Amino acid sequence: MESTSCVGLVLTFNQANTIISAVDSLISQTRRLSSIIVSDDCSTDNTCEVVKCRYAQEILDGRIQVLRNSSNLGFVSHFNHVVSQFRDERTLLFYNAGDDISHPERVREFLLLYQSLGQPRYFLGHSYVSVIDADSDDILVPPILSIEGNRELIAISSAYHIGASQVFTPALFTDFGQINYDDCYEDLTLGYRAVLTNAYHFIEKPLLGYRTGGLSSWQKNPLEKKRRRFCATLNQRVTDALRSGDTSDFEALKDCYLQYGFSISSHSHQVNFVEVSGESGLSTLQDYSIVQRIHRLNNMFTIKKLDLKELMLSLQHEAHRVTKRCIYWIVMNTVSEGDFIDFMTAISFPVEPVFVLDFGLHTPADLISSKSRWLPKFLERFPNGYFVTACEVSFGVMRGYFPYDRLCYLAPLQDIDGVVAERMASTSGMTRGLIVLGSPECSSLQSISFARSSFRGKRIVFDVVEPFLADRDTHNLAQGLTEGGIVYSSTDAIDYRRYEFAIIFTQATQQRGLLHHQWASLSSQLVPSFIVSEGFSSESIFHGKNALIVDNTIQNWCLVFNIVDQNYSALRELASEARRSAYFNMSIQKKFYIFKERIRGFLREEKFFDRFNPL
Fold first, then answer.
1. Residue 22 belongs to what domain range?
2. Is the pTM of this model over 0.85?
């Protein structure tokens, strides 16, 4: 059997602080590598200089080769440039990112596996990886293990092996050609080529220490970037399938391409969606509707916005165009009762459309009382009519009056995505906080006012959000706390970058939706939250982890102000965890499937974007 050349391949960019441990891990392998190549993509720090200084003798001996691009190519072009230099089919390339650490047995384990298979031309090996962050000892499992044997899912999957662990032969690159798209995922490209050539091989051991939170973290890769990269990956798969002669995945790839909205042609399940609102003058806290977030789902819908009068005119002149695949979503807290009754009685349809009345976070008591007759009449008038609320309490009350199958609870999801804009630097030497008065009680503000007057640290000033009509005493206290600042009646004009912290007052049992909405909105902008709420409980918010729950006393507010003044770095860590929690528990990006299923139910369709995820 011919000998195998084992080459360590370190692609790096701005990793001066971790590059030595990465290269040392390759040098320390129990089976010596033939050579190690460190290729730097024109780092702006001193990564290249650190390597040359630390490994001067190894470079002189020829064991380590250091390359540096004259300009920054970006990862895919950098990968293409380096891997294209290898033509020997008896070579194994051991990829090692500049911030990861190969375990000592990694080279030996993969080499033994490769040789036991007869040194095939096509080989892609991967393994478990151990997380090397200070606060974690997790072992990560490659996603492809859960879909083995399902060729359709493999063809359209956005996750295969853990790319940091990959070991491969150059033929997977040279026989298929370079990766054509700069936005592409190189590990998904190599993985699909391995599927086409039956070259995937897995070792059930953690053979690499993986550092999380790098360039692939969710905060640094917003949804649109992920979508763009996945679109490029699907395009690359079509190219590679043609090159291999195996076109069995084309139907699945085409359907996935359509359903994700990458094609100029619309998907057959796409729905015409009309958002209807009025001008009630209520605050945007009360006006919250999930429709304000569904622009992320524009491949599911064609979206049009109208006010109620425009909708009436449109339907009077274009009623013949109304189809069953149209949803009229009315934001009820912006529409007066009289206007809606006029609309409901004046319009007729040749085809019964789907109407959804969205009551958002706040449902006035008279709308859900037994005395209201027009809501039951709406359900009678429109067989395809439904009520939606983001308030759990309102949902519970409405169940006592209306059929369960015509009601829907949708949590107040947020648009949480990408990197947060830099916080505005204070030029006044003061700390600025935001108070959200979800519970408009005068005593709520008195304790804060007294505590601030006795606090001896950095001066604290507040802006106040007063979404509900407060009594005069509470409003005057709010004005006094601002000291010339702002009392908002809504959140639409607030720039959260101005605030170092926020205080949220709510009634826990009555305003859970409002609380979660405000906490997630603040967390999305990395604003740490103090929550004042009796009987507080939540499946998403936890004291000391992603928020701080405070009893409303002067002593406690003095402690809060001291934390803000003396230990703000800890608050920032808490805010970072809050944003992560809000993203995974309350973002449209991660919970869109709930909304998708509700739409499917409204349309009474068995299948609705059922094969692949709309995002």
1. 5-216
2. no
